[in-house]
Write a structure and sequence with these properties.
The complex is a heterodimer.
Chain A: E1 25-30, E2 36-37, E3 52-56, H1 63-71, E4 103-105, H2 107-113, E5 119-123, H3 133-147, E6 151-155, H4 159-171, E7 174-180, H5 185-192, E8 197-201, H6 205-216, E9 224-226, H7 232-236, H8 240-249, E10 257-261, H9 266-280, E11 290-296, H10 301-308, H11 333-343, E12 346-350, H12 352-366, H13 372-386, E13 396-400, H14 409-412, H15 425-430
Parallel strand pairs in A: 5-13, 6-7, 6-9, 7-8, 10-11, 10-13, 11-12
Antiparallel strand pairs in A: 1-2, 1-3, 4-5
Helix pairs in contact in A: 2-12, 3-4, 4-5, 8-9, 9-11, 10-11, 12-13
Chain B: E1 2-6, E2 20-24, H1 28-38, H2 42-46, E3 57-61, E4 64-65, E5 81-86
Parallel strand pairs in B: 1-5
Antiparallel strand pairs in B: 1-2, 3-4, 3-5
Chain lengths: 434, 92
């Protein structure tokens, strides 16, 4: 097997570095054909176009010692630095220090849904820019530093643009991010407020993504680190920290079932990778777990492929209120199918009305205001419980990946004051709320 | 039919570093065959052993993803711009 050098095809790298210190990251490996490449700002296999991912030299030895090392680490994803493509001193670098978000034991929600085995909501709206994207971006920033990039960029459905803008501001990098022109106001404002450049593109997310892929191969993109294009192998690893945290918060135990939203599918595949690593390192007991994927009906290419028994995903044109999941051509879709089938899970979708219902259910029962992606995940959870595919007696973790304040429009039309009254007691009594 | 093909960075070893080349053909299939005549081996990176588009390659004829049109049979009108792009980008 030939080994290509990173400078044969580094994407947009200013100067290919001679040595890269990204902790335990040893090389890039193609998920399709296994070809290995030196660490560099590349994301697709030069042989087969397959996605590249990080291959590690992990610490060996006593799992108890590693658990203790993690427990003594910072209250952020950097407690898991020995398992991430970041240098050992990463916590000393200026960054947003995401992670360690609450794993909420959702007993009232469980009672409503008839779950008796323990239901938890991993609430990633508690991250610095109120979505799980801070985890992945923090990893990408370290890769950007290592490769000498001076501009941080991305294609985004909204949450990522905010996370990149904030992380770049903290790290002292320029940012220039690209979004579809029709996003929710909350996400647009949040992406712009950090002072970087925000470019709205007349098209869907998939059009934005295509544009960014072309930009990176052009001299204009020289020196640009696109977190989810040429830094994608490093960036995506950040989602493993969701798996690590969930298991640590459960007392170093695997949950029986996880329900995870699908946009590109990367998050789901990396959570699975993280769980497998914990087993491999002896940090959790090796026992079966099942992974379920959740999509909105208006953008459900992976769910359809799952239902039809296909192992390829036919792209669709998205039309859903769950804009953060509106990726019609999901890069990791085939791997999501593999994981759902391998673990005995499933991929399912729900319509927009049920997404809104689920947002309100979570808010009403647990005081968690989820964005539409969280509504998708809980909506699918309900559906899978109703048809018996989720076991109500098993420990179940549902992901909320973003904050409802970013998608107010989804519920604004059906949520508001119970009454508008004059400022006196009679008026309050007349409203029937006393 | 003469068309312009944008070459992704990872395939530029086949085109002597050029990011854009011209090719002939009335369909995408013909264009790829012509591309391979002038840049031997490049089609094998875009197509699998069965001659189908690899699953992690996106090809656009003008602004249309060929998976939404007729795949390799998609017409390539004179002057069309074709982009070959790795599919493993975006999202999280």
């Amino acid at each position: 097997m030939s080994v290509l050098t990173s400078d044969d095809h580094a994407e947009g790298a200013p100067v290919p570095p001679a040595h890269v210190d990204l902790g335990p990251a040893a090389a890039l490996s193609c998920r399709e054909c296994g070809e290995r490449f030196p660490l560099g700002p590349i994301f697709a296999c030069a042989s087969c176009f397959g996605p590249l991912e990080i291959a590690y030299d992990f610490p060996t030895g006593d799992p108890e010692a590693l658990r203790a090392r993690i427990a003594a680490g910072p209250q952020s994803i950097w407690r898991y630095a020995p398992l991430l493509p970041v240098p050992a001193d990463v916590a000393d670098h200026p960054n947003l220090n995401p992670g360690c978000t609450p794993l909420v034991r959702a007993d009232r929600l469980a009672a409503e849904l008839g779950v008796t085995g323990g239901l938890y909501v991993k609430d990633d709206s508690a991250n610095p820019t109120h979505s799980f994207k801070d985890r992945v971006v923090a990893n990408a920033v370290e890769a950007a530093r290592a490769f000498g990039f001076t501009t941080l960029s991305c294609s985004s459905t909204g949450n990522l643009a905010g996370a990149v803008g904030a992380a770049a501001a903290r790290a002292g990098l320029r940012s220039c991010v690209f979004i579809p022109h029709d996003l929710e106001q909350g996400k647009v404002v949040m992406a712009a407020v950090y002072g970087g450049d925000l470019v709205a593109i007349e098209g869907t997310y998939d059009d934005v993504n295509r544009f960014c892929s072309e930009l990176i191969g052009d001299p204009i993109g020289e020196g640009w680190g696109f977190v989810n294009v040429n830094l994608r192998p490093y960036y995506a690893e950040g989602s493993k920290t969701l798996a690590y945290e969930i298991c640590e918060q459960l007392g170093w135990k695997l949950p029986d079932q996880l329900v995870i939203p699908i946009a590109s599918g990367s998050q789901l595949t990396k959570i699975d990778k993280g769980l497998k690593e914990l087993i491999q390192l002896g940090l959790v007991e090796d026992r079966p777990y099942r992974i379920f994927g959740a999509q909105a009906e208006g953008c459900s290419p992976v769910s359809r492929a799952y239902r039809d028994g296909h192992d390829v995903v036919r792209p669709v044109k998205p039309d859903t209120i769950a804009k953060s999941l509106a990726i019609g051509n999901p890069a990791d879709g085939p791997y999501v199918l593999d994981i759902a089938r391998r673990t005995g899970g499933a991929v399912e979708d729900v319509d927009d009305a049920r997404i809104v219902d689920a947002i309100k259910l979570l808010a009403r029962t647990e005081g968690i205001f989820a964005e539409t992606a969280g509504g998708v995940t809980l909506g699918v959870t309900r559906k899978l419980l109703a048809d018996g595919r989720l076991d109500p007696e098993a420990t179940t973790v549902v992901l909320n990946t973003g904050d409802g304040l970013k998608t107010l429009d989804a519920v604004a039309g059906t949520t508001g004051p119970s009454a508008t009254i004059r400022p006196n007691l009679d008026s309050f009594r007349e409203a029937g709320l006393a | 039919m003469s068309v312009t093909v944008r070459i992704p960075t990872i395939l530029r070893t086949y085109t002597g570093g050029s990011s854009e080349v011209t090719a002939e053909g009335a369909t995408l299939q013909e264009v790829l065959a012509d591309l391979d005549r002038n840049h031997q081996g490049i089609a094998g990176r875009v197509l699998d052993d069965e001659g189908k588009l690899r699953r992690f390659v996106n090809v656009y004829v003008n602004d249309d993803d060929v998976r939404f049109t007729e795949g390799l049979a998609t017409k390539t009108p004179d002057g069309a711009g074709i982009s070959i792009i790795p599919a493993v980008a975006g999202g999280a």
